[in-house]
Amino acid sequence: MYSYEQLHTFAKKIFIAIGHTEELAASAADVLISADIRGVDSHGIARLKGYVRLWEVDRINAKPNIQIVHETPSTATIDADAALGLVAGPRAMQVAIDKAKQVGTGWVSVKNSNHYGIAGFHSMMALEEDMIGISLTNASPLVAPTFGKERMLGTNPISVAIPTLNETPFIADMATTTAANGKLEVLQRKKEDAPLGWIQDGDGTPTSNAHGVKEGGALLPLGGDREHASHKGYILGSIVDIFSAVLSGANYGPWVPPFVSFIDPVADPVGEGLGHFFGAMRVDAFRPKEEFLQHMDQWVARFRQTTPIDPNVPVQIPGDYERGMEAERLKNGIPVLDAVIADLNELGEKFGVKL
Amino acid sequence: MYSYEQLHTFAKKIFIAIGHTEELAASAADVLISADIRGVDSHGIARLKGYVRLWEVDRINAKPNIQIVHETPSTATIDADAALGLVAGPRAMQVAIDKAKQVGTGWVSVKNSNHYGIAGFHSMMALEEDMIGISLTNASPLVAPTFGKERMLGTNPISVAIPTLNETPFIADMATTTAANGKLEVLQRKKEDAPLGWIQDGDGTPTSNAHGVKEGGALLPLGGDREHASHKGYILGSIVDIFSAVLSGANYGPWVPPFVSFIDPVADPVGEGLGHFFGAMRVDAFRPKEEFLQHMDQWVARFRQTTPIDPNVPVQIPGDYERGMEAERLKNGIPVLDAVIADLNELGEKFGVKL
């Protein structure tokens, strides 16, 4: 078990070791370790080695000149200059928040970026400003559109964070596939099969092989099959792709650069890096703040009271799982897999940092 | 078979007969019959009688004073004054477009409205302005959240329309449930079963009974069951509900007034009428217009070329189905069910209008 501080300090020192300023390294560590503390282990410290490897092959710029390249009063397009997405994300979300302070809402599309950790970190930045936060990103192609067998989209998540007065805030953070990659990794480690509807094999046939994606198959869009409306998951992933990359000038669809350093980006990119999209809406741009927050409290309270199918399994509010994990891990610490600890020790030796 | 003009003229005359001005009646008919021409029969002329019945029980105001009650440079909240949603929708979308012309994007939440036809009509208004259009609405509660057996959400659709240069535009219009109500009506008429994953019965058990919702059950959120991430459909429907109603001051969740006139709205409403949410984003608020449109063309062309599973079933672009229906129906006419024709004749006799 590790504390939040232990993992944060280690990650920050590694980011400094590869050339980041203390400020940028701290910001990147904030995003990265927020995944571990919230129970999204696939997006946290386990990925630190992956980010370092991208830096080693010159795909991460530790001294980025992140700048607005196009703007209106309510919008901006940002060139992240090949920064860590962990660095570019909070910067861009702050621009959205600042625009919202001025004109009610702010919308920022980002190009030339890299993976940005959990989508929910960025959307949640809006909560303390009494704004609704929105965070989208495209990602390495792993998902086949309905009727297709080619990997065309990433797991392209949607996160929306909505403030409340006294109730827990509404914090949605969901991949637009049936199952996120992290869930498959869990099954792979346990040597278990995946439910049908999560994966298809290289021929486009549904498979329960949890290694199906690595073996030439694809993840399936939310819905799972045509009969259960997988075209809607395909639509959602496409909207995320277009807002993140066609608006900004990043790569989209099958051109999105892979997260892994051992696969080179495509030779004929249609844009720069990968893309994100952020939004911030002041709730008092629509109605008086107290009114909105009180009704959000009532919304949350009423949905918690939904008559349950099983009296012991209440209906949840988006964010409940992560909130529960955070409370538990702040108290008892964060478990880290042996394989991840080995990676971290290797990184530590290379850069002279001790975990 | 009926022509677009025949149905449009009839609907317009009926809307005039119940007290609308010629302008408002024409606008409402535009929205209503756009559903028939695009093949979304459940949302078109078949609903005309339902709208009239709502007017008969004083739930529709044919002389509405639709006005902005709160605004910032990029946002507005509109009180639709109990107008037809068919009237309030285009008005509110136009406000979003006008705001976008000024500050890059426009976002409008609407309260005190009624059903607004197909979501896609409103989002598509943005296309001719080279804007991305967004249209959301909440609706009568028919959907149970994951783990719940109570109907808490409507089919709460999401529509996003994205312009292109020469390719067909990207037009998504999807309920956040596995199956829209219209699909169930088709099965009911054919006396066929529904696939598991569409409906649960009154105990919360999955059922293939296509009449399950009418018999006390509920529609299931996109995903269908927990293993296939129905919580994501629940999340999406919730976001639509909150943006449409908690932002605007409309009713949300189980308080949303029913479409049918024979069920009274709840006695303790939390807001006024039902709610919509519209967005318009100028593409040149993010990058030069030609660049965006050319890359959208490339996006559409590349996704059409996705390697298909079956060489005879190509991957589609959102909107293809409706475009195909529109071309076919403009040429050959719109089929109308006998039961619907009987309703229309009844309406015609009542108001002295001939189909």
TrEMBL record, chains A, B:
Superkingdom assignment: Bacteria
Family per similarity comment: Belongs to the LDH2/MDH2 oxidoreductase family.
Signal peptide region: none
InterPro entries xref list: Mal/L-sulf/L-lact_DH-like_ah, Mal/L-sulf/L-lact_DH-like_NADP, Mal/L-sulfo/L-lacto_DH-like_sf, Malate/L-lactate_DH-like
The name this protein goes by in its record: Malate/lactate/ureidoglycolate dehydrogenase, LDH2 family
Single GO MF annotation: oxidoreductase activity
Keywords linked to the UniProt accession: Oxidoreductase
One Pfam family it belongs to: Ldh_2
